[in-house]
Amino acid sequence: MRHPLFFIGFLFALLSGGMAAASLLGAPGVEMPTRTASLLLVSNLGMLVVLARLYFRQPAVVPAAVVVAPHRAEIQSLQRLVQIVQHGQTPAEVYHILLESAVQTAQADAAWLDLGPDHDSTSDVAQYYQLAPAQADALRAGLRAQGPSDDESIIGDLRSRPGFAGPALAFRSLMRLPLHGRHLDYGVLYLLKAQPNTFDREDLSVLQTFASQAVLSIENLALATIALHNQRTQEELKIASEVQDSLIPKKLPTDDWFEISTHSLAAKEVGGDFYDFLLLPGRRLAVLIGDVSGKGITAAFHMAQMKGIFHALMQGNPLAKNERDRFPVPSRFMTQANAALAHCLERSSFITSSLYIIDYEQGGFMFARAGHCHTLYYHALREEVFYFQSTGLGLGIIRDDSYEKHINNQFYDYGPGDVMVIYTDGIVEARGAGKEEYGEDRLKQRLEECYYQDADAIKWFILNDLNGFTTGQPIHDDQTLLVIKFKAVEPETTA
């Protein structure tokens, strides 16, 4: 008759495995994290396999009292492995339990564990049991004489094997058990007995399941560590995304003279595109747009720096002789921003930007382009759509006083009904199914078709066409689009 502990073990494995399966299948009243349920289910399946092997194993002809103790140790050892999978402890603990469990199950006199190259060397693992390192070295040398194979093996009598014949041996039987994962090799476990011909295939079969559980534990712990790191990274990126979103203007400047509509979409959780507005005295509006080279966290960090520089440099100069000279013109702003960024921008990074100062009382604007995309413009009086062809060098490319020579101001008088489309290269470089870019020509054609609508409708007309063009393709760069439309009917001015 089998020991009652077998049935307790079966019930324990079936119950906990059933709970895990019920959780995964969404059974009412059974809830646990998906990952925990999956690991618990796999672990208990392995436990059932070992229990089945132990149950149907033919017992040796020895007193019953001697048979029960090893089986009890086997079940308890496997339960400890299952608990490690469930509770997510360390690889070192898994190795320790495996070594201890294998020795107890096989009733080995000694053992050692050779960790493979894929083992985490920072883990503190006890590699020897009742064996001096020098003895293990001698046995390794003897095993190398038999060939390079690391397949599991049971050696009846070491003294009859090449490499071991002749010298006196403290151990005569050896079992070798590789720890193979799906993609990595974690090491080899060696078990020893003093008497020859004392390991059998049943020992090997049970210990293979132990080893499989240990490897599963180690791999799942590695996956859990990666998942935790990714979760923390995602949480940090979420915070960064929220911070960056707070830097994007939500309240757009409004006036009877113009309309503004904006769009911004990051290719990743955070991006390097930016835009901002500042109302200046004298019924003027400063509009800044830019694009930091690269994507992700670093680009987002420099985007925040550029926003801070914008607000710092566009403060009034109290020593100016008149109100309109208190604020830097666009070319002066770019020169000062370039000098500020020289101290904090990586050598491999740069920023393209354009600054527009719109004087909607005087009916004109001044702008400077620091290597940014050309401005698309609709001139209502001439009924013409065109790009401003201006020169200018990106910020951070030249980091000395000579930068001032590479930036200049341009002036333009606007009229009622004119439209200005300002964007980053993520718009015109967006790719369609055939890897063809959206392009400046297509953007120009869309404005020719929708210039008569209001600013928000123009923006959506362009975006809908862009989204149709890129259907099924991933966004490979941040996208920003600003549409400014000067109203066709100017407000009456008060005396």
From TrEMBL:
GO terms for molecular function: phosphatase activity. It comes from the Bacteria. Residues 255-486 form the PPM-type phosphatase domain. SMART domains: PP2C_SIG. Signal peptide: none annotated. Keywords: Hydrolase, Membrane, Transmembrane, Transmembrane helix. The chain crosses the membrane at residues 36-56. PANTHER family: STAGE II SPORULATION PROTEIN E, STAGE II SPORULATION PROTEIN E-RELATED. This is PPM-type phosphatase domain-containing protein. It comes from Hymenobacter nivis.
